[in-house]
Amino acid sequence: MLEIEELSVGYRSGKKMIHALGPINLKITPGDIYALIGPSGCGKSTFLHVLSGITKDYQGKVTLKGEGLDPKKQDIGFIPQNFGLLPWKNVQKNCRLSLKIKKQNIDPLLAERMDYIMDKLNIRSLQDRYPRELSGGQKQRVAIARAFIMNPDLLLMDEPFSALDALTREEAQELFIDIWNQYKTTTLFVTHSIEEAIYMGKKIVIMSHCPGTVVEIIDNPLFNTENLRENEEYLKLSTHLRNVVKKGWKI
Ligand SMILES: Nc1ncnc2c1ncn2[C@@H]1O[C@H](COP(=O)(O)OP(=O)(O)OP(=O)(O)O)[C@@H](O)[C@H]1O
To answer: Domain ABC transporter: where (predicted)?
Structure first.
């Protein structure tokens, strides 16, 4: 369980403090996937930066599995908007990065897991290529592979599919859910797309305008539904989401 209590973040800008986020109170249950949506500038990236350990200056309490958040002790995966691949490492080395950092030996079980993930994402043939030699969709698939190979306690993704064209985006979303269904990695991702939130979020967390707080958490009955737009419930849920979002965003 990831527990967030009264989390607030402020940034210093000259003599002023900018209240960027919170207070946020949220419990993320293990083995679930949460979509986080909210208006531009409400603090979504700031929130992910706290959870990934990039931002250490915050108020409130964040615990993962009952212990204070500490990326040195807990495995936290983070896929940023630009995929976060290291340009000087080829695909294979990028995928194995977390294992190298943890000095983890590749036993037969882990090797099998790596092969399974790379096959599923269709990137085995790309192992020797460098990020500059990959398309956007291929980079995304490598980033997803790296995250699942790491097998993190918590996976964070900041608009992970926004840089992809519509078809590649749909394909990447499907591949992600396919692998996620296998490993059920606890995941929190930020998106601006209501459709993406409905397709990929088992739970949908709606944030208010800046400083972002949680407006509503929706248990999503349409998670992982194929041909989403053709589903009668889709129109109802997306209209409801849009309404809550509007209320919360005070447009
Ligand atoms: N380093 C910083 N110094 C000062 N203010 C900052 C800094 N980083 C972010 N902010 C402010 O904090 C607030 C939250 O920013 P953040 O990037 O977390 O929002 P966001 O919801 O991720 O935005 P977007 O959807 O546009 O990516 C914004 O008002 C932003 O201007």
So the answer is: 2-234
